Amino acid sequence: MTAALKLVHPLTDDDETRWGAVARRDAAFDGRFWSCVKTTGVYCRPSCAGRPHRENVSFVATRAEAEAAGYRPCKRCRPDRFIAGALADRIDTADWAGVRQRLDGDGWARLGRLLSDEECAALIEGYERDAQYRSRVIMRRHGFGEGEYRYFNDRAPAIVRELRMRVYEKLSPLANGWMRRLGAEARYPAQHGDYLKICAAAGQARPTPLILKYGSGDYNRLHQDLYGGEVFPIQIAILLSAPGKDFEGGEFVMTEQTPRRQSRAMVAPLEKGDAIALAVNERPVAGARGVYRVKMRHGVSEVRAGARYCLGVIFHDAM
Ligand SMILES: [Fe+2]
Ligand SMILES: [Zn+2]
What we know:
This protein is an alpha+beta fold. The protein contains 9 helices and 19 strands. It has helices at 2-8, 15-24, 63-68, 87-92, 96-106, 117-125, 139-142, 158-181, 192-201; strands at residues 34-37, 42-44, 57-60, 72-73, 108-113, 133-138, 145-146, 148-152, 210-214, 219-223, 234-239, 247-249, 252-257, 264-268, 274-279, 282-287, 290-300, 303-306, 308-313. A 7-stranded antiparallel beta sheet has the order 5-15-11-19-9-8-6. Strands 7, 10, 13, 14, 16 and 17 form a 6-stranded antiparallel beta sheet that branches. Strand 16 and strand 17 form a beta hairpin. The longest helix has 24 residues, at 158-181. Mean pLDDT is 94; it is low at 1-8. The protein binds fe (ii) ion and zinc ion (ZN). Zinc ion binds at residues 44, 48, 50, 74, 76-77.
């Protein structure tokens, strides 16, 4: 095992090499080790613009080690925002047990960062590439809000198709659990391809992944993404723009309606590339007199400046 690790990272196992990378601010080493700075109590990527003295720096192989030793992520190079590797691995290593618990409790859960800056930029850049979309919706025309969105056709970028397929596999057991608790039949197959056949048989065969674009003054009224009787009860959204940098305002807002109660409002703090999973419509909540249905709606508050792009992935197709 040790030998194999050495083959993968032949250049990062000695402190002299590591310090060389830090001194050069070599981004090629980002993710391969982290430097902890004793004087400031933060840990950094090798590429950090900070200039610590050698005697104050120690190295660790993982972020978990740095945090266990009491170091906080540097605010300048944001080691906590670093992602790399295949999308499949990022999805596999998300905290699915925690996600399931928060989805059960609140109807939504952050999945952490799933897309890199480059991947976000590529999706935004592709917004005007007509060949990959089946339609454009100007929200004002339908009373949905202000702003617009485009539904992908079956030529959506590979990353969108892969996300939809792989995240579905993580969520379908939870969706089946919700159905059972609501007294309905568990009906979501393990593979997304098989679920799309069920959608098609119900007359829902048009892809629903979409990119939403909001400019200054735009917003999205509270709604549910239902496209017919066939519904997969959880969906995801990924913020593609950076709050506070690319845009101001534009919070992801949800309301939850419990029978005989006023609505509860919730705001999900998201950074660029972060994903959120949320209930599309109803979820079961255990009460004193059995299980009842809690309804969720979601929307986006007004964007005060800049442009905000978001990727939405809904797992059922549309009529
Ligand atoms: Fe939506
Ligand atoms: Zn730093």
